[in-house]
Design goal:
The protein starts with 11 loop residues before the first helix and ends in a 26-residue tail after the last helix. By secondary structure, it is mainly α. The protein has a domain of about 70 residues. It is flat, with a radius of gyration of 25 Å. The protein has 4 helices and no strands.
């Protein structure tokens, strides 16, 4: 019987975190609906406002916000990019990098 089945529950602190996240999403949704309502009178302004909100990180939680909420570290993309070694890809045509004179594909006559 289904009533005899047991379902595991997350710890109370995790339940509170989930409820808080859901409430945050509802707040964002309410804000978006209000913005959409304001934009109905000025439809040409909806696109730019939506783009601005996206660029400002107001549509979804940022990775930094998620990391803070989850208690984990976060490294911005620029930090990751500085650690990636820069490599020049081999030129088209399958030649090795040592044969590249820097003039680009087709420059070898």
């Amino acid at each position: 019987m289904a009533s005899d089945a047991e379902a595991p529950l997350a710890p109370l602190s995790e339940q509170h975190r989930i409820v808080s996240a859901i409430e945050s999403y509802f707040t964002r949704l309410d804000d978006a609906v209000a913005d959409a309502g304001a934009g109905a009178a000025q439809p040409e302004a909806v696109g730019p406002r939506c783009l601005k909100a996206a660029v400002e990180g107001r549509l979804v939680p940022t990775e930094a916000e998620l990391a803070r909420a989850e208690g984990r570290s976060y490294e911005p993309g620029l930090g990751v990019l500085t650690r990636i070694p820069r490599r020049t890809p081999p030129p088209l045509g399958g030649r090795g990098a040592s044969e590249d004179d820097g003039q680009g594909p087709g420059a070898h006559g």
